[in-house]
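--- STAGE predict ---
source: upstream dedup step, 1 unique chain passed
mode: sequence only
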Amino acid sequence: MQERGVLLDHSTVSRWAIRFLPLLEKAFRKYKRPVGSSWRMDETYIKIKGVWKYLYRAVDKEGNTIDFLLTALRDKAAAMRFFNKAMQDNGTPEKIVMDKSGANKAAIDQIVKDQGMSIVVRQVKYLNNIVEQDHRGIKRITRPMLGFQSFQAAKNILAGIELMHMIRKNQLNIPGGEKMSFADQFYALAGKICPD
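--- STAGE serialize ---
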């Protein structure tokens, strides 16, 4: 930007990220490749203003990201919000593998009961290794940030981190995308929200 005669402070870039990353993530959902029907679900911890919050995440058996949701609490209501959001965009899974969390199991049982679905739920610790390993990609980026200062900023920045994580996993389905670098795919997606 300096080469173009524009002076910027690092906080300006941060404000841009907080403002535009949710828009990019929303645009990405229109071009996201379909995911499998066997899900691995888990939550990980993210520090916000010195307090641990919960990032719910799910991947399919191939490791493709299904969805994510940052919540303040780790309870049945938060798990239900996550499952409803994931199913709204990705359809109903045939099978969900999760850890031994009672809240997560209660949430999916409630959704199955309320909507009359048939979903096999498996609570086997070691079958969840795919999502546990996938957390590393997110943690590798958030750890050097030394935490976030607001919940909204964390939610927006995590949307961008997850977006790039999905682009790297080849989940963006745009014409000619397989021939583009990750950066070019990102720029093509940005062009979808800002066509100028």
